[in-house]
Specification:
Blueprint lengths: L4 E7 L1 H13 L4 E4 L11 E6 L3 H14 L4 H12 L1 E4 L4 H17 L3 E7 L19 H29 L7 E7 L2 H12 L3 E6 L10 H11 L4 E5 L12 E5 L5 H13 L5 E8 L4 H17 L5 E7 L3 H12 L3 E5 L3 H8 L8 H4 L3 E4 L9
Parallel strand pairs: 4-5, 4-7, 5-6, 7-8, 9-10, 9-12, 10-11, 12-13
Antiparallel strand pairs: 1-3, 2-3, 8-13
Helix pairs in contact: 1-3, 6-7, 7-11
Length: 377
């Protein structure tokens, strides 16, 4: 079924961003059109919603109109919160690489970077299998030592990032850090729900294991469950020589969640002026796939106002191999998809013993959460 979209309001770019962020805080999906316009009125930025959400959206809109108009700084501060970037950090090389990458993205988005370390708590580890031994150990003392050492190391790394900002003359970006006891993926997911970042950037270890720090599995779990977009940066991606993503591939599974994901992707690539390639790989192209792709192209170009877009259908028995060839041919900088494309995401994190794909090792992967049909929460 084709989604029915309606315009909730036409505003300046900043006010449209603010309204869109407040709508999404209430679980109402929204996107903006004409993002290159700066004036209100017919030529302004339109905030678009699904017609089914109109009643709830009107409540937010009325509150927004009555609360706005006093302080421009309030809107600026709110948008900094909406754009902030969370970087789960465990001191591994791939986590450091992701943090450096996050600085570059933040510099374009004028966002803050929050490092999060989830550290091990020895007091919660069961020792039932060692009952025959006698221990004279204070887990409270060990816990305090672990926490202090972790905090010192995290502070030292945050200072390192600040030096990078200074050396590269990057302004408008702040670096903060926090540490929390617990198990990695559940704690990160809980922190995302509380902190509400605009983007999560995580490092992946590629196909290598580094001791017990299997961070790739944590990244996969966060991608699957987090409602915030998650950008995974492979360890072998040269974040130190970062260049703006000129070409972004959106791999579509021809699902209605594509509309919302593409609207978010368009906002993400706006500061980089990237080309978007929207591609679906199929064993045999069918008529309904052509119709769907045509509708989506119209949505992105006419409704979202995106000019730099190419859409296409590829016939290939192996979708991952098809995308691999496309990535190499077009020299893609970022691959994007939704959690609906679970088969490809799964293969991204469980590479074949004999086959290592390019975008498993050197191409960042941006994943958008796809709500189940009918879920408006």
């Amino acid at each position: 079924m084709k989604n029915e979209f309606i315009t909730l309001a036409t505003l300046t770019y900043m006010r449209a961003q603010l309204l869109s962020a407040r709508l999404e805080q209430k679980g109402i999906e929204s996107f903006m059109t004409n993002v290159n316009r700066i004036k209100e009125g017919p030529g302004g930025v339109q905030v678009i919603i699904n017609a089914d959400d109109l009643e709830r959206a009107m409540t937010v809109w009325e509150d927004f109109k009555s609360a706005y108009g006093k302080e421009k700084q309030e809107a600026i501060d709110f948008m900094r919160i909406a754009r902030r970037i969370l970087v789960p950090f465990d001191f591994t090389p791939h986590a450091e690489n992701a943090a450096i990458y996050a600085l570059q993205i933040a510099s374009k988005m004028k966002a803050d970077v929050q490092l999060l370390n989830v550290y091990f708590d020895p007091g919660i580890t069961p020792f039932a299998q060692l009952e025959s031994f006698t221990f004279t150990v204070s887990f409270d003392d060990i816990g305090r030592e672990v926490e202090q050492e972790t905090a010192d190391n995290l502070k030292a790394f945050s200072e390192k990032l600040k030096k990078v900002l200074k050396q590269r003359k990057i302004r408008g970006v702040n670096v903060f850090y926090d540490l929390v006891k617990g198990s990695a993926s559940p704690t990160i997911l809980a922190y995302i729900r509380e902190y509400k970042p605009g983007l999560v950037i995580m490092g992946t270890r590629g196909s290598e294991l580094e001791g017990l720090r299997s961070f790739g599995s944590v990244t996969a779990k966060v991608m699957k469950k987090a409602k915030t977009p998650v950008l995974a940066v492979p360890k072998d991606y040269p974040a130190g020589n970062f260049k703006s993503p000129e070409k972004v591939l959106y791999a579509t599974d021809l699902d209605q969640s594509d509309y919302w994901a593409l609207s978010k992707l368009a906002s993400f690539v706006k500061p980089f002026n990237s080309n978007i390639y929207c591609v679906h790989v199929s064993e045999e192209i069918e008529k309904h796939e052509e119709v769907y792709m045509h509708r989506m192209r119209e949505f992105v170009t006419k409704t979202l106002g995106v000019k730099k877009l190419e859409c296409g259908l590829l016939e290939c028995l192996d979708p991952q191999l098809g995308l691999e060839d496309f990535i190499k041919e077009k020299k893609i900088d970022i691959v994007a998809m939704t959690t609906r494309h679970h088969s490809l995401i799964s293969r991204f994190y469980t590479p074949s013993v004999t086959q290592k794909f390019l975008f498993q090792t050197t191409i960042p992967l941006l994943v958008f959460h796809a709500l189940p049909p009918g879920d408006k929460k």
